[in-house]
Amino acid sequence: MNDAAITARIQAVFPDVQPATTPNAQPRLCVPAATLPALARFLLDQPDLAFTSLMDLTGYDLAKYPSTPPSDAIRVVYLLHSLCHLHKLALWVDAPRASPVVPSVAGIWPAAIYFEREVFDLLGVRFDGHPSLHRILCPDDWIGHPLRKDYVYPAEYLGVAHLREGQHFESGPVRG
Amino acid sequence: MAEPIRPGNALDEQIHLTAVDEFLAWGKEHSLFYLLFATACCGIELMQAGGPRYDVDRLGMIPRATPRQADLMIVAGTITHKMASRVRTLWEQMSEPRWVVSMGSCANSGGPFSKWSYSVLNGVDKYIPVDVYIPGCPPRPEALIDGVMALRERVRRYRTSGERDATPYLVAGGDCAFGGHPGKDDGSGGEPKR
Is residue A57 part of a domain? Predict the structure, then answer.
């Protein structure tokens, strides 16, 4: 199926899914968080769609992002690929920065287990229904989520300062 | 053309008299087994130093897969805060006398990550004592071998005199993109040279 056909096929069943306005060769669909579990199951199970592979699940903080109107959300991105039809699809799910919660797709694509742990670790998005949501890259006792735009860099960790003695930078990150 | 000097068959040419300590020092100096431990791209240069072109095996340096058999730890690469406790554990598992070479800007001072990274440790000497610092990003195998030769001097002195050199040895050079040499006192503080 081509991109327009995929979008039309999905919108016939899920009318609240809207194509993103960003011009791009690859279709990107904005999905409300509540619709995501049913849509994910639909994309995997329908024989003419058959998105069997979750290539990537990542995210980014939209604060300070040059968009109009300014968004206050964390965007989770799902990159899907169909290994039998060789077509691709990207989903965007926006979650409010204050308390970002997105339903987990780990029960649909098991590859999401590690991906969602990474997004939780670095952006603080909580995935409802994830079997074991804890940090994967940072140490377990790390404070904060480093890829958030308002992240305050730690001044020290376990008593070890982040700058060497006498080290100074004229610019750099805010250190707490 | 001069004849090469070879031990003859006479008894006094076959037997050498020395002190036991000096004999042990000679043996230790020529068999610095190093822990096969690399965390980043400096490990590639470490492998190159062990490869056929530079061949540190000829110096008696043989990589060991376990810290319990290693005399020397070459910290080759970036150490994150999460990794630092593991580095400390590996170092503690090595038997005395143990030696540490900090290879590359990252292990020396955090290197290119010292400014903007939240997760990288600014120098492995915050966790374990370092005997030799080698600047470079990454250092060439020649620099690594220079550091090892300096360390061998220290190993011999330690075995004969029983005293460790307190001040670390700094390999000369430092002509690397990311400064980061702890002995450098130009106020750059590891700031990249532009």
Answer: yes
